[in-house]
Amino acid sequence: MRIVILTGAGISAESGLGTFRDKDGLWTRYDLSEVATPQGFARNPALVHAFYNARRANALDAAPNAAHRALARLQGARAGVTLVTQNVDDLHERGGAREVIHMHGQITRALCAACDHRWEAPRVMGRDDACPACGERMTRPDIVWFGEYPYHMDRIAEALAACDLFVAIGTSGEVYPAAGFVEEAAGFGAETLEINLEPSAPGRFDRVITGPATRSVPAWVA
Ligand code: BJW
């Protein structure tokens, strides 16, 4: 059986990383158009670097939880498990996952807007950092902002078309194109399952398991 698993901020919530749209979520405290768009970065790079430097520090200090480890066990135990995450943290990898598709980029990586070179980000990035490949001072976090094209879409589309089961874990299903994966997979005949604290959109999935990820994901994997 081929499985595609899509994870969102909810899987890292119990590792202490905030979600975006829950009560006290990041978007209740920050204006997303200022910190998560290319236009916001052009207007105020120092603000955007400060936002991501703080989140990078939190991500690096966080530890993977039982849900990350359970998915890693599943991927290690059987062939045909594609793990796609919207998260920019590296907790799936540190939890033992051998292959993770980061569709919204990685907070531990830097990107040169001039030449597209990517490298490991320092813990603190700044507007004066130069690209190690071309020397331009156009460096930014390697994150997919609103209005930008998510990464690895061809690979994801291929996996969705071929899967027998699509599972969404800890995501509100509000951000496209990830929010449309469930319909895409169902259109190809896959069964669909949501694992979330609360159902994100009743009726959208064939089956829903509710509860905190650290309990519900290991129970589902077992
Ligand atoms: C728990 C839990 C626990 C809590 N256990 N669960 C109008 C219609 C359609 C689309 C658009 C539109 N207007 C604009 C668009 C496009 C736009 C979009 O979707 N906007 C919507 C807001 C409407 N999308 C884009 O711009 C994307 N690009 C694009 O569309 O390009 C064109 C294209 C078209 C077609 C195909 C391909 C391309 C880019 C999106 C980039 C998203 N970037 C962000 C920020 C950057 C990363 C970062 O800073 O970290 O990515 S936004 C933010 O939201 C972040 C996340 O990855 C993403 C999704 O959030 P997520 O993970 O779902 O978190 P929450 O907080 O929303 O939900 C948490 C869930 O966890 C909740 O359900 C809780 O219940 C649950 N939970 N605790 C289990 N313990």
From TrEMBL:
Family of the protein in this entry: Belongs to the sirtuin family. Class III subfamily.
Alphabetical UniProt keywords: Cytoplasm, Metal-binding, NAD, Transferase, Zinc
Protein known as: NAD-dependent protein deacylase
Subcellular location: Cytoplasm
Domain named Deacetylase sirtuin-type: residues: 1-222
A cellular component term, taken from the record's GO annotations: cytoplasm
One protein family per Pfam: SIR2
Residues the entry annotates as binding NAD(+): 8-27, 86-89, 170-172, 213
Native organism: Roseicyclus marinus
Gene of this entry: cobB_2
Protein EC: 2.3.1.286
Active site per database record: H104
Positions of substrate binding: Y52, R55
Classification via InterPro entries: DHS-like_NAD/FAD-binding_dom (IPR029035), NAD-dep_sirtuin_deacylases (IPR050134), Sirtuin (IPR003000), Sirtuin_cat_small_dom_sf (IPR026591), Sirtuin_class_III (IPR027546), Ssirtuin_cat_dom (IPR026590)
Cofactor: Zn(2+)
UniProt keyword DNA repair present: no
Domain notes: 2 residues (Tyr-52 and Arg-55) present in a large hydrophobic pocket are probably involved in substrate specificity. They are important for desuccinylation activity, but dispensable for deacetylation activity.
GO MF annotations, alphabetized: histone deacetylase activity, NAD-dependent; NAD+ binding; protein-malonyllysine demalonylase activity; protein-succinyllysine desuccinylase activity; zinc ion binding
Protein residues bound to Zn(2+): C112, C115, C131, C134
Reaction(s) this enzyme catalyzes, per UniProt: N(6)-acetyl-L-lysyl-[protein] + NAD(+) + H2O = 2''-O-acetyl-ADP-D-ribose + nicotinamide + L-lysyl-[protein]; N(6)-succinyl-L-lysyl-[protein] + NAD(+) + H2O = 2''-O-succinyl-ADP-D-ribose + nicotinamide + L-lysyl-[protein]
Cofactor note: Binds 1 zinc ion per subunit.
Signal peptide segment: none
General function of this protein: NAD-dependent lysine deacetylase and desuccinylase that specifically removes acetyl and succinyl groups on target proteins. Modulates the activities of several proteins which are inactive in their acylated form.
